[in-house]
Amino acid sequence: QALLLSPSKYNEVIGERYNAVSVKVALHNQAIFLLLQKGVQPEKIVIDAFTSAQNYEKYLKNEANHFSNAVSLEEKAEGKYLAVAVSSIIARDLFLENLENLGRELGYQLPSGAGTASDKVASQILQAYGMQGLNFCAKLHFKNTEKAKKMLER
Hints:
Elements: H1 7-13, H2 20-37, E1 45-48, H3 53-60, E2 71-74, H4 82-106, H5 116-137, H6 143-153
Parallel strand pairs: 1-2
């Protein structure tokens, strides 16, 4: 079950009631919930650990959709379970496809992640479209946003 959170929706919920980890918990929980609703009956539910089990449970309490199946968070799960590896590949492909589509809409090739290339493109988008354009294609709470603003001031 693939779920894609747009940068603008991410920016909307970050700080309001979510942080980067709680967003991941919410998305993993919703994907599992939807699969179970479809009648999938897994032997085991495994998530490649991105936080501690204690943290996961803490954030899970804030979610509306709950289920009784146990969830296991395991480090390096993609090396242990084919389903986790395949899910990771599918998620990465969806991310890159979305990045390409967002860039096409704005007329820029959007680099993935942080770094000088991302800062440069972000400053160009800021100049062309302002914060609204950057909000459309980037997570704004990272340091890249401030770096892009400073590049624009030069």
